[in-house]
């Protein structure tokens, strides 16, 4: 049993020496050492009580069938949370870009509105001048029954429609966190800080 414990410690040192976390991109900063039975691990711990602590300090996590399943599930949850966080970052970027484009488009729409308002005012001024100074004189031809002036002149009216003012865009605000976010945020924060999530 003492030899068994020594062999496990030797294997742990060999795994630690490989330093996978330095050689591979985007990898956890530890390596899992699998022992295919709880009894094998228990026997080694009885002969070498500091084995587990020394392994942790050497970035080696000793796992048995039971703890390997738990570790795999924890890693899967971490990957899902990271994917959610990545999607949230993309959504935030898309939202900022959409807001910027809406702001530019709003400026263009406001310019079109100002142009339409100016055109309506000029049209009304033109119609007012035409109705008050020109058409009254022209209608007298109809009253005198001159040849070619029998058809009455159309009555021109001013445009009274007012443009609806464009309200400025309000700044984007982050949505209120939900109960689901309360579960996700600690996991993401713990993963980024390198501390285990509770």
In words, what does this structure look like?
With 198 residues, this protein is mainly alpha-helical. It is 67% helix and 4% strand. The chain contains 6 helices and 2 strands. The chain has helices at 2-18, 20-23, 38-47, 51-57, 65-143, 179-193, and strands spanning 31-34, 60-63. A two-stranded parallel sheet has the order 1-2. The longest helix is centred in the middle third of the chain and has 79 residues, at 65-143.
Count of individual domains: 2
Query: Quick one: overall form?
Result: rod-shaped
Radius of gyration based on Cα positions: 40 Å
Low-pLDDT stretches: none
Oligomer: single chain
**Beta-strand residue percentage:** under 5%
Count of helices?
A: 6
Helix content: 55-70%
Query: Could you give the distance between the termini?
Result: 35 Å
Number of strands: 2
Structural class: mainly alpha
| Strand arrangement across the biggest beta sheet | 1-2
The succession of helices and strands, N to C, reads HHEHHEHH
> Major beta sheet, specifics?
2 strands, parallel
State mean pLDDT (0 to 100 scale): 79
């Amino acid at each position: 049993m003492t030899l068994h414990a020594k062999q496990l410690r030797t294997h742990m040192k060999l795994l630690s020496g490989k330093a996978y976390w330095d050689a591979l991109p985007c990898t956890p900063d530890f390596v899992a050492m699998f022992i295919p039975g709880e009894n094998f691990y228990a026997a080694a711990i009885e002969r070498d009580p500091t084995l587990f602590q020394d392994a942790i300090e050497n970035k080696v996590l000793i796992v048995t069938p039971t703890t390997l399943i738990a570790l795999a599930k924890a890693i899967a949850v971490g990957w899902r949370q990271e994917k959610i966080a990545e999607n949230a970052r993309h959504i935030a970027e898309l939202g900022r870009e959409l807001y910027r484009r809406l702001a530019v488009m709003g400026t263009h729409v406001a310019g079109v509105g100002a142009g339409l308002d100016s055109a309506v005012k000029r049209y009304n001024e033109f119609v007012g001048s035409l109705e008050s100074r020109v058409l009254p004189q022209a209608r007298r031809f109809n009253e005198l029954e001159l040849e070619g002036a029998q058809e009455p002149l159309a009555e021109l009216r001013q445009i009274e429609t007012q443009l609806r003012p464009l309200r400025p865009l309000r700044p984007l605000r982050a949505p209120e966190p939900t109960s689901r976010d309360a579960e996700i945020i600690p996991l993401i924060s713990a993963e980024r800080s390198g501390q285990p999530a509770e």
